[in-house]
C-alpha cells in the first residue's frame, strides 16, 4: 500500500473538500474484516503523528453495518468490490474465528457481466463514455461523435468498470428460485445502450449472472475462497452463511439465522435478498426460522457501514473507547487491539 498516496487522499478529502481539521475532532475509521495488524498500526501512526488527531477508533465494516440496521446480534454479509465478508456479530463485537472472506465479490460479478452478457455478442472491449459524446442538432436529432482525446489507461479501466456496474444494477436480476434457461425462455428482453451507440437486447442470460452467486458451477470458474485460517472452495453464499453460523456457539445460532443482513454494492442486485432467504431456508431443518432483513431505500445497503459509523459516533458510550493521542504516546498502537471492536 502506498501510504504517501493515502495521506494525500485523506488530506484532500477531509481538509480541502470537507473543510475539517483533523486536530479538532476524534476520527472514527472503518476497516475490513481481514485488515492486518501492521496496517492498523500504520493507520494510527498516520492519524496521530501526521495529522495530530486527538483520538481515533477503528471499527470493522461488518459491525458498523449491523448498527445501521439497529441490531447488535446479526450475521452480516458485506459484498464489497474486491472481497465479501461473512461474519457473525454478537453484542456489537465481531466473532473472528468463524468469519470468512471470499474473493467472490463485486469485481467477480462485473467480470461475469462481461463474460455472459457482452462477449457472446462480440463485444470484447467495453466501450466507454470517454471516447464518445452525444451531439444534439438544430432540428433536435442526436448523434454520437467520437472524441479526439487520449485518456490514461487507468481512467479507461475505471470507466469500463463503471459501465459494467451500471449494467449489473440496471439489467442483471436474481431469480427467486434455482434458475433454468430452458424453463424460462419466455422472459422478455431488456434493452441497454452502450456509450458507442450499440444497443444490446439482453434476455434470459441476465439471470445467469446472479445465479452464479448461488450455483458457482455456472460461470465463476475456479475462483478461490478463503477464510481467516484455511483455504476452501466457494459453494455459494447460502452454504457459507450456514457454515459460519454452525461454527458459532449453539446458543447463538437461532438468533443469527433470524437476523441476517446484507450490505455492499454487490448486494443491490434486485431480488438477491429474496433468493438468499429461499436458499437458506431450504438448507435448514424444520423449526429453524431464517430471515434476511432488507434495507430501504436500497442505496442504504451500499452505505450501511457509513450509516452505522454515524450511529456509533453519536453514542455517549463510545467516549470510553476512544484511543487517545496520550494513550498512543504512552503505549504505542498495542492497546488498540483491546479497545476496538
Automatic annotation (TrEMBL):
Record-linked Gene3D superfamilies: 3.30.420.40, Actin, Chain A, domain 4
Record-linked Pfam families: Actin
Spans through the membrane: none
Family that this chain belongs to: Belongs to the actin family.
Full protein name: Actin-related protein 4
Record organism: Lygus hesperus
Amino acid at each position: 500500500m502506498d501510504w504517501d498516496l493515502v495521506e494525500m487522499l485523506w488530506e484532500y478529502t477531509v481538509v480541502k473538500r470537507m473543510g475539517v481539521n483533523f486536530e479538532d475532532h476524534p476520527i472514527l475509521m472503518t476497516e475490513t474484516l481481514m485488515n492486518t495488524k501492521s496496517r492498523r498500526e500504520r493507520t494510527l501512526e498516520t492519524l496521530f503523528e501526521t495529522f495530530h488527531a486527538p483520538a481515533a477508533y477503528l471499527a470493522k465494516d461488518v459491525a458498523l453495518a449491523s448498527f445501521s440496521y439497529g441490531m447488535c446480534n446479526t450475521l452480516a454479509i458485506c459484498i464489497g468490490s474486491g472481497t465479501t465478508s461473512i461474519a457473525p456479530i454478537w453484542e456489537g463485537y465481531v466473532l473472528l474465528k468463524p468469519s470468512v472472506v471470499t474473493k467472490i465479490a463485486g469485481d467477480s460479478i462485473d467480470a461475469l457481466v462481461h463474460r455472459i452478457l457482452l462477449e457472446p455478442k462480440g463485444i470484447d472491449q467495453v466501450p466507454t463514455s470517454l471516447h464518445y459524446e452525444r451531439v444534439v442538432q438544430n432540428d433536435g436529432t442526436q448523434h454520437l461523435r467520437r472524441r479526439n482525446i487520449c485518456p490514461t489507461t487507468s481512467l479507461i479501466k475505471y470507466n469500463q468498470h463503471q459501465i459494467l456496474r451500471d449494467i449489473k444494477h440496471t439489467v442483471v436480476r436474481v431469480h427467486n428460485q434455482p434458475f433454468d434457461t430452458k424453463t424460462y425462455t419466455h422472459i422478455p428482453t431488456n434493452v441497454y445502450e452502450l456509450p458507442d451507440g450499440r444497443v444490446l437486447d439482453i434476455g434470459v442470460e441476465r439471470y445467469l449472472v446472479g445465479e452464479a452467486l448461488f450455483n458457482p458451477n455456472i460461470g465463476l470458474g475456479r475462483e478461490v475462497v478463503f477464510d481467516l485460517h484455511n483455504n476452501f472452495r466457494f459453494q455459494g453464499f447460502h452454504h457459507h452463511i450456514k457454515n459460519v453460523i454452525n461454527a458459532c456457539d449453539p446458543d447463538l445460532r437461532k438468533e443469527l439465522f433470524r437476523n441476517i443482513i446484507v450490505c455492499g454494492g454487490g448486494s443491490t442486485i434486485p431480488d438477491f435478498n429474496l433468493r438468499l432467504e429461499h436458499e437458506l431456508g431450504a438448507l435448514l431443518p424444520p423449526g429453524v426460522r431464517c430471515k434476511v432483513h432488507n434495507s430501504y431505500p436500497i442505496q442504504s445497503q451500499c452505505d450501511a457501514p457509513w450509516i452505522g459509523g454515524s450511529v456509533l459516533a453519536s453514542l455517549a458510550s463510545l467516549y470510553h473507547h476512544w484511543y487517545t493521542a496520550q494513550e498512543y504516546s504512552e503505549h504505542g498502537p498495542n492497546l488498540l487491539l483491546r479497545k476496538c471492536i
